[in-house]
Structures are given as structure tokens and as C-alpha cells.
Amino acid sequence: MSKKNETRIDRRFEALKKEGRAALVTFVTAGDPDLETSQAILAGLPKAGADIIELGMPFSDPMADGPAIQASSLRALKAGQTMKKTLDMVRAFRKGDADTPIVLMGYYNPIYVYPNEAFLDDAVAAGVDGLIVVDVPPEADEELCLPALERGLNFIRLATPTTDDKRLKTVLKNTSGFLYYVSITGITGAGAANPDDVQLQVARLKRATTLPVAVGFGVRTPEQARDIAKSADGVVVGSALVRAIETSLTQDGRAAGNTTGAVLSLVEGLSTALRTS
Amino acid sequence: MASKTQKTSEAKLNTLSAGPDERGHFGLYGGRFVAETLMPLILDLETAYNAAKDDPAFQAELTDLLNHYGGRPSPLYYAERLTEYFREVAKSQGGAGGAKIYFKRDELNHTGSHKINNCLGQIQLARRMGKTRIIAETGAGQHGVAVATVCARFGLPCEIYMGATDVARQSPNVARMHMLGAKVNPVTAGAGTLKDAMNEALRDWVTNVRDTYYLIGTAAGPHPYPAMVRDFQAIIGQETRAQMVEREGRLPDTLVACIGGGSNAIGLFHPFLDDKDVAIYGVEAGGHGLDVENGHAASMNGGRPGVLHGNRTYLLQDAEGQILEGHSISAGLDYPGVGPEHAWLKDTGRVQYVSITDKEALEAFQLSAKLEGIIPALEPSHALGWVTKLAPTLPQDNLLVMNMCGRGDKDVFAVAGYLGIKL
Q: What's the pLDDT tens digit per position in A153-195?
């Protein structure tokens, strides 16, 4: 089982605490819009200011995601993305970056058919640091979460506005790395949460855990990121980044010359906001 | 933990009808694989359902509604001409068989299918829970119509998610939902069929979780839905038992029902699971044939275990675990999964799951119309397709019950099109 300060995620949050600023957590889907472009985006994220990278494992039926991430998932699958290719992307990234944490995020079925233990071994070998699997609740910890923790991976859970204090205990039990607070009831990329509500909720979560709390769902602009960073230890931005990929594409849906740049400049703007708040 | 789980499954060996366990598992299958936002609500739902199940007032109210609004009990009908027909077929093949065919007439229910049984149960539960808005997914539109109906009856606003492809091929049911005051939201994601409608309904639910009740139409999804929908549909099998004993003085020998998600089938099968002498067949949609890649909707005969829409079950999926769309002439059967209890019954061997192609279902559709004067929905036409193959091979004293779970009014134009009939 991983102890505090053992993983890249633990070390990154510890370092940022000393710097006195919140982490910028960025989400992109692996293989969107194609493997080569996606690898270039991934490689450029740390320099653009991403502190932690969430890499989406594309799935045909992303039930908790809004239109932007649904579309990015389908683009990646159409371009031939597979779980092996996603893990290879992490391996290639690690050759140039030994420190930036990578969290794989997605749904259970592509992991389940891999299957679980082989996936976890391959993820560790590739240099993955943590997992967020949207549709595996704490009630099913023994099938994926506990084997992941045994291998030194962080297993990051979502807390939501419907997670009351009693439920929170269950959610926190085997959570490690950080706690991801979903600031709205809804799907990714939907309306933004009220910053005052977020502040109250983060305070509530922090009373229950010593883990860093990152806040996501509906964060689009540097201003929103700065507001949320006032109370949270991390700010997650996803739909806005994949939408930047989408709008940069050529008419026939291929990567354009500015696709990588469009995503990275958005990340730079968000990062600047967090570094100057 | 491990020993506790083991004890539970050992205890279940004595009966096939006691499942699921306390965490919603039917053996390997079932469970609750949903986003955290929904977990508290699903736990509430389980508590509310368990309380309602044991409340005589709830059950009495439901029985009253089923009888006087839903039209239960549905008749058990001896299909004499079909029986004679299968005996002729047997004779022409040099045999002396031909089972005695009964139809459980759930197509005579209010709204034209078995779906009303479950909707009356769940709408009562939603009201007990104080929910003020109902959402649902629908494939063929039978469930959507039943939901729209109970929402009209109890004055609750209702939104139905339906794949855009299904909206086009099931227009009579779309019109009915509109008349009943429901809002129909066509879903264009994916192939625009049932799985995509379910994804979109889940997205609505996660957004409006506090006031909204998700009225799932089949015996699938996160626990407690598979068990709850089964319990509400088990009236089909309970009535069949009593009616057959009254008619023939004994239990049936053979049960046949079609399987999409599998709610009508589990409703008929469940009260008979421990009667080892009753042979049970579930009929999946074979589409263009099981050998045609992505050309069928037979999750159990042509898929493998995975996790989707809140439960672990057999799924149509590729090597990467991406879900396939599946195909069937019947909009009610082309779902890439199946209820988890069926997955478990398949693995235990208690129920035999077979498949019938589009073409075979169309032939059975015509047979029922012409010989019995009953126009079946395309879904039970699959069940009848299997009866057509099976009945001539069984002895004449074999009592066979097929669930006629829906009527074919919604399908007549589509079928006329397939058959090239100019109207």
C-alpha cells in the first residue's frame, strides 16, 4: 500500500504546497485527434504549466461526460486508439519527464477486459501514477482499487455535491493521491459551479481528510481557475482543452498545424492565472 | 470478506431464486457500477424499495392498479391452431410430436405490453420517495409509452430518451408518448438506439439527481434495478403457474420468452427457477446471424462479460472493451447487454439461451397473425420463432408457455415494408 510522499502525485502536491499555489490538473484524451498529435500535446503539457496530467482512456460510452469529451473519445477511437497505445504514450512521455504525475482516467470496461491485474502491471511499468475510474465505486474496491494500491498506484476517487458526510467516509477509505471534488451534479463540461459553494464544500472535505482536494467539472477560464484555487489544492480543466482540439481541426476532422499550440496556449493562460493569484 | 462472500454463494446453491446478494450480485454479475454522484441516490432507492416491498399497503395499492388499470390478470390462452400446425409439421417430418402451445397474453395489458407491470410498481415507489420528475429510456417505445402513461395517470412531468433511429422506425409509439404529455428527446449519439438513449438518460439523472426518478424499463442497470424490475414482472410467472394448474392440473413443461434486456423473460421464468423439470428457453435477437460481425444483438450467445450501464453482464463488445451497437429488426431487442440475472442463469445452465434471426422472426410474426389472429410485436415474434423450431420436436403432452409480451400494432408498417407489401 502506498504511503504518503511515495508517489509522484504526493511529491508534486508537497512541492506546490511549499510554493504556496494550487496545482493545475489538465485532462486530454489519449489518441485525440490522432496518436502523433496527442503524444505531442502530452509532451508539451508540463512546459505549458500542467502540474498533473490526467490522460483519458477513450471509451465508446462515456456516461458521465458531456458532448466535448464524448466527441474527443470517439475521435480517438476512430483514429485507432487502444489501451496498449495509451500505455505506450505514457512510456514515451516518461523518457523525457521523470517527475510530472500521470493519472489515467476513464471507465471500467476497457480495463476489465484487458484484464485488471495485467492492466495494473502494465500501467505501473509504463510509468502511470494513479487511476480515476468513474464507474467503480468504493463498494467494489477489492476488484480494482486494492490491487492498484498494492502496486503503489494512487486510486483517486470523486466526491460530489451528493456525497454527504457519512458517504464521504466510504469514499475516502481507500482514496489516495488526492480527492477529486466534482463541483456540480452533472456531466463534464456543463455549467460552472458557484465559487462560494465550492469554497464551502472544499472546507467540508478538508475537515474529513488530509489529502489534497482538486476541483473540476465546468472550469473553463483562467478567472474561474483562479477563483477555485483560492480554496482548492488543485484545479482540473478538461472539456475546455478537448474543445480547443476540436475547434482547431480541419474540415475533415484532422489535426491542423495549430492543434497542439491551441491546447498548450490555453494551458499556459490557466497556469499563469494560478501562478499569479 | 472472502469467506463471507463464499458463504452467501454456497447458501444460494439450495435455491436459484434467492438472488441477488446484499450487494446486488448474481454470481459474478450485477453490482453497482455507477458514478459517485448517483451512489447515494441508488442506496436510497434500495432502502425505499426494500421498505415498500414489505409494506402490505404498497402491495395492495399496486395489485389494485395492476388489476383495474393495467388489466391483469392477463389470460393464458391455448393456441389451438398453432398447436395443430406444429403437429402437422412434426408428422411431415415423420414424427408424432407437437407440444401443446399456450400464450401468456401480456400483449393485452394496458399500453400493449408487459412494460406496464414494472411502470406501475416504480411510479408508486417514485411517489413514495417524493420524486417530482420522471425520466426513462426506450428502445421500441413500449417502455416509453408505459412510462408516459403512468406519469399522465399520476400527474408527474416526464422526459423520455429515445435513439433517433428508433424514433424513425417506431413513429406510432412516438406519437403516443406525445399524446400522453411526455417530452421525447431523440438521441443522435452513437447509432441512435437503445444503448445511446440509456447513456443520455444517465447523463440527465446525474444532472438532476435530487428531484428526478430514473424509471429503468428492463431488468438491468445498477442494483437494485435488476431485482426490483424482476419482482414487478414476476406477476407474469406467478399468474402462469396458477392458471396452468387450473387448466391442466399441473405445471408447464416448457417456457419460452424473448430477451433484450430480459424483463419479460425474467418475469415469466423467475417463479419457476426451482422447478427443475420445467425447461426454460430465452430467445435472443440473432439479427442477420450470429456469424455476422456486429450484425446481431445476442449478448449471451455472441458476447462476453463486461461492465456497462451500472452492472456486470454479457456485452457485445470488441477486443478492446468498446461496446458494439448490435443489430436487430426489433428495436426492443437491439441492446448490447442483458440483465445480470440472465447472465448468471446462463452460466449456471438453468436457462438455455438461443437466438432467432430477423428472417425467422418475420416468419413467426406472420404465422401468429394468420393462424391465431394475434399480431405479435417483433420482440415476442423471436420467442415464437424458437417455438416454431422447438414445438414439433416435443411430445404432444408437453405443455409449452410462450410469453406474448407485446402486441404488434407499432410494427405493422415496418413489417409491411420488410415484406414488400404495398398498402
A: 999 999 999 999 999 999 999 999 999 999 988 898 888 888 8
**What tens digit of pLDDT does each residue of B22-59 get?**
999 999 999 999 999 999 999 999 999 999 999 999 99
d(CA B8, CA A26): 44
Alpha-carbon distance of B47 to B372, in angstroms, equals 45
Q: Please list the active-site residues of A.
A: 54, 65
pLDDT of B305-354, one tens digit each?
999 999 999 999 999 999 998 899 998 898 999 999 999 999 999 999 99
Residue B354 sits at the chain A interface (C-beta within 8 Å) = no
A30/A72 Cα distance (integer angstroms): 9
Q: Which amino acid is at B24?
A: G
> Same domain for B57 and B83?
no
pTM > 0.90: yes or no: yes
Closest approach of chain B CAs to the CA of A60, in angstroms?
5
Neighbours of B318 (CB within 10 A): 15
Residue with cell 442477420: B288
Contacts of B308 in chain A (CB under 8 A): 61, 109
Last residue of a domain, one of B202, B230, B258: B230
B192 contacts on A by Cβ (under 8 Å): none
Task: Give the chain B residue whose CA is nearest to the CA of A184.
Answer: B207
Task: Please check whether residue B312 is in contact with residue B328, taking contact to mean a CB–CB distance below 8 angstroms.
Answer: no
Option in B34, B189, B203 nearest A137 (CB): B34
**A-B Cβ pairs (cutoff 8 Å, strict):** 112
Q: Are A240 and A266 in contact (CB under 8 A)?
A: yes
Final residue of a structural domain among B162, B195, B230: B230
Q: Taking CA atoms, what residue in B is nearest to A136? A: B33
Asked if B344 and B218 sit in the same domain, the reply is no
